[in-house]
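Retro notes (design track)

What went well: tokenization of the new backbones is finally stable.
What didn't: we kept losing track of which sequence belonged to which structure.
Fix going forward: every design gets posted as structure first, then sequence, in one message. First example under the new rule, 222 residues:
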């Protein structure tokens, strides 16, 4: 008899994710799962998002890393509740990890929960965390060919942030080809060019996120 271990793991994860999703919906909190490779600028994007939205919404962050508390400490330094998850080697977060992290937060006091997934372009796509939206960050220096190499992450993302856009003139980055390939993989996903550390392009991303947050607060599906 053949036992499909991976299928069992995903089924258990999906069941817990559904419970997480119900919990988030009952609290009226919008949850976004940020996925990217290491160095793409996940934390800087989170900080830029916080700066754009903190006067309007109550925000908390869950930081996923293989080790260390560096990113959580950066977020906490800005007065935002941050929970660190160290996976101890796992290349992705799972719904049970999120459930345990959320237990330390008061969800009814939040409007937006940002999850920074472990830096990886493969594993996080398979694991539902109970989030409302998965968002993918690609930095210009990584190259415009990433959608060819990692199509699944672009297919599951509800939006794509093209970070470090201020460096586009310094790299052989074909933006037209990038947009064409992403559009073929996921026509509904908007692309937001951004230089997170400078705050450039954040407004359009924040406006998209605001629409989603308001829908969650109203108990609607975006």
């Amino acid at each position: 008899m053949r036992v499909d271990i991976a299928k069992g793991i995903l089924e258990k994860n999906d069941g817990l994710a559904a419970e997480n999703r119900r919990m988030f919906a009952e609290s009226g909190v919008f949850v976004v799962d940020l996925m990217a490779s290491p160095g793409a600028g996940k934390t800087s994007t989170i900080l830029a998002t916080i700066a754009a939205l903190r006067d309007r919404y109550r925000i908390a962050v869950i930081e996923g890393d293989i080790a260390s508390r560096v990113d959580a400490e950066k977020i906490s330094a800005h007065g935002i509740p941050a929970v660190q998850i160290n996976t101890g080697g796992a290349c992705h977060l799972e719904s049970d990890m999120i459930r345990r992290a959320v237990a330390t937060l008061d969800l009814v006091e939040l409007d937006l929960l940002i999850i920074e997934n472990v830096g990886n372009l493969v594993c996080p796509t398979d694991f539902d965390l109970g989030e409302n939206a998965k968002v993918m960050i690609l930095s210009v220096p990584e190259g415009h060919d990433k959608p060819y190499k990692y199509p699944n992450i672009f297919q599951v993302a509800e939006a794509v942030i093209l970070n470090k856009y201020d460096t586009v003139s310094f790299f052989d980055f074909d933006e037209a080809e990038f947009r064409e390939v992403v559009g073929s993989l996921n026509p509904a996903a908007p692309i937001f060019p951004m230089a997170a550390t400078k705050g450039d392009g954040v407004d359009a991303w924040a406006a998209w996120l605001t629409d989603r947050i308001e829908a969650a607060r109203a108990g609607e599906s975006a």
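Added context from the reviewer: DSSP finds eight helices and seven strands in the chain.
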